[in-house]
Amino acid sequence: MRDAFFGELAARAAEDETIWALTGDLGIGLFDEFERVAPGRYLNVGIAEQNLVGIAAGLAYAGKTPIAYSIAPFLTSRPHDQVRVDVALARADVKLVGVGGGVAYGTLGPTHHAIEDIALMRALPNMTVLTPADPAETAAATRAMLGHDGPVYLRLGKNGEPAALPEGSEFRIGRALTVRDGGDVTILSCGPMLTEALAAADLLEADGVSARVVHIGTIKPFDAAGVVDACAGVGTVVTVEEHTVLGGLGSAVAETLAEAGCGIPLRRIGMPDCFAHAVGSRDHLIRHYGLDAPAIAAAARRAPGSTTERAAA
Amino acid sequence: MADASGGMSRLAESADAARRLALEAALAAGSSHIGSSLSLIDLVTVLRLGVMWPGDRLLLSKGHAAAGFYAVLAQAGVLSREEVLDGYCRDGGTLAGHPERGYPGVEITGGSLGHGPSIAIGMALADRHDRSHRRTYCVVGDGELNEGSVWEAIALAGHLRLANLTVAVDANGLQGLGRASDILDLEPLADKLEAFGWSVAEADGHDHEALQRALSVQPGRPRAVVARTVKGYGVGFLEGDVMSHYRSFKPDQRDLLLGALEERRAA
């Protein structure tokens, strides 16, 4: 996802002289192409994230379109006040690009994980929050982000994520995308967790449970109508996010379904309100904390209202 | 832009009028932060009316001095007197107790301290890249220098030799709970700023000529002017009093407040 982002960024910057790139001393070698096509519009501000975001805001106030790049927690938690006041409140045209969303930085430990970034960014008025699923969608989301006037948080995984969406899928800010149809369960996921959600749907299918899988590539603005539609008629809804279950996708879906009066049982899969103290790779942590495909499938089966639960009753 | 003779008296008159307007607005609203407003009115008046050129940017980072800032903007014709009197800190008003980006003449949202210098760097970088002659001026408080983010910005601006940036410190020596020198002593401040690659001058923050001289220097690297000011300047019984940060006055204390201002002016 990271390479897809940088490729698209450089391509856009070659055409649009207002685009600047700032980093807080992260991304070795990744800005080379940008510097080549956009001389004088790249700046490493040093390891100083408050300054990073404030400078980006100043550039935006002066008519530029800066992206500020860092590891997700160092962009969303560390300088949160600058994001809140200088970017969101001022509705500045700043693009915050966080790499390592969720537990992508696995063994580096909880300081490098971003498990509450979606909640933080989603709570800010004026902020758009994008959670692409795979490299191709990352490129499309980058394009959309740079074409959107206003603050955006783009949450990336790391690198090497597999393609998850069907080829030719169209990305539009604010639209939920049904990736697989099914009638018993709706699984909604964001970011690269789509891969796990689709694998869970395969597991459920083997058990005779038909799962619809919906990808939420934009957490905010949230496609409430699309989500209500996607959950109509199923017995269970499961949300899947590489994030705490508080305040992220699961919360957005819960709010939406409750306000729409859907009354469908909901299971939220995510970090269960804890930091990832376990040591290991992303795959290990996903398994350890029950975010992988078997855990998703199991949650879907166990949920009240699910086909298997009803059969057992 | 102001000449040395007639210009100075114009600035003095304007600053006096701004002090009066700031107090009137604070009285009408029953608002606090009067001391902070009075300490920077001379500094901002000199900047806005005696140093800046059209197109230059003025960032108020210590946003709590809003009443003083609005009053100077009114003197500059950017805000109307009526708007300051009727709109400041009022139910249904138009000017909050900390300025918001988007108000006339307001470049950044103040209120959360330590944000201005970084934003100023971003603007100055854009101008430098665009080969614009614009200059960016950022006013911070000395208490505000407690914020680490200020030093992130000071270090980087020095490193980048951002010559189109001036930071003016309203150094009134007081902050939230007492004297800056007792709470977090950052003196010798000028030496610190010099060490970060800035060109630095200190000036009496109520001497217009000295301020204008210090603020007009453009030395090929970032410029800092430490304006030694008096919190509550112009109202004798508020001067140098830490409580001038918090005290608010009721309309029936108008004579007390404005009388003190007149007395100081006549002296």
* Main pleated-sheet profile of chain A: 7 strands, mixed
Low-pLDDT runs of 5+ residues of chain A are: none
Largest sheet of chain B: 5 strands, parallel
Low-pLDDT parts of chain B are 1-8
> Alpha-carbon distance between the termini of chain A?
44 Å
Which series of helices and strands of chain B comes N to C? HHEHHHEHEEEHHEHEH
CATH class of chain B: Alpha Beta
CATH class of the largest domain in chain A: Alpha Beta
CATH superfamily of chain B: Thiamin diphosphate (ThDP)-binding fold, Pyr/PP domains
Mean pLDDT of chain A: 96
What name does the CATH topology of the largest domain in chain A carry? Answer: Rossmann fold
The CATH homologous superfamily of the largest domain in chain A is named: Thiamin diphosphate (ThDP)-binding fold, Pyr/PP domains
Number of helices of chain B: 10
Distance between the termini of chain B: 29 Å
Coarse structural class of chain B: alpha/beta
Strand content of chain A: 15-25%
| SS elements, strand count of chain B | 7
Helix content of chain A: 25-40%
Offer a few descriptive terms.
heterodimer; A: about 325 residues; alpha/beta; Rossmann fold; 2 domains; 7-stranded mixed beta sheet; 5-stranded mixed beta sheet; 13 helices; about 40% helix; elongated; B: about 270 residues; 5-stranded parallel beta sheet; two-stranded antiparallel ribbon; 10 helices; about 10% strand; disordered N terminus
Q: How would you summarize the topology of this molecule?
A:
The complex is a heterodimer of chains A (313) and B (267).
Chain A: H1 2-15, E1 19-23, H2 32-37, E2 42-44, H3 49-61, E3 65-71, H4 72-76, H5 80-89, E4 95-99, H6 117-122, E5 128-130, H7 135-147, E6 152-155, E7 176-180, E8 185-190, H8 194-206, E9 211-216, E10 218-220, H9 224-231, E11 236-244, H10 249-259, E12 266-271, H11 282-288, H12 293-302, H13 307-312
Parallel strand pairs in A: 1-2, 1-3, 3-4, 4-6, 5-6, 8-9, 8-11, 11-12
Antiparallel strand pairs in A: 5-10, 7-9
Helix pairs in contact in A: 1-7, 3-5, 8-12
Chain B: H1 6-29, H2 34-51, E1 57-60, H3 66-75, H4 81-87, H5 116-129, E2 136-141, H6 148-160, E3 165-171, E4 174-175, E5 178-179, H7 180-183, H8 189-195, E6 199-204, H9 208-216, E7 223-228, H10 254-266
Parallel strand pairs in B: 1-2, 2-3, 3-7, 6-7
Antiparallel strand pairs in B: 4-5
